[in-house]
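One-letter codes give the sequence; the integers encode the fold. A sample entry reads:
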Amino acid sequence: QVQLVESGGGLVQPGGSLRLSCAASGIIFNSFAMGWYRQAPGKQRELVAAITSGGMTNYADSVKGRFTISRDNARNTVYLQMNSLKPEDTAVYLCNANRHIVISYDYWGQGTQVTVSS
């Protein structure tokens, strides 16, 4: 059974930092691309950052220079370091694991709330 468990969300003031973690189980972690998405109330889910199995990264323009995605294959965990947080970063952040080789796999975590407010 595949599980993606996010942690690290919370309430932070503007300009602050948070580090999200997503622990994966039930998959061959180092063969999956991993991503962080977010969904704010009334808005569509959007990609925040992604990292391939080989370590290449991609970021939404809105978070470039502020957020960093990384992965630890030994711990089956992907991280999202978020600095200089803004109120518009407030959303539920969801972890995604995907692999599209012959057969497609796409898994989601339950999400963790990030609230940026003074």
In short: The CA atoms of residues 21 and 41 lie 22 Å apart. The chain has a mean pLDDT of 97. The two ends are 40 Å apart (CA to CA).
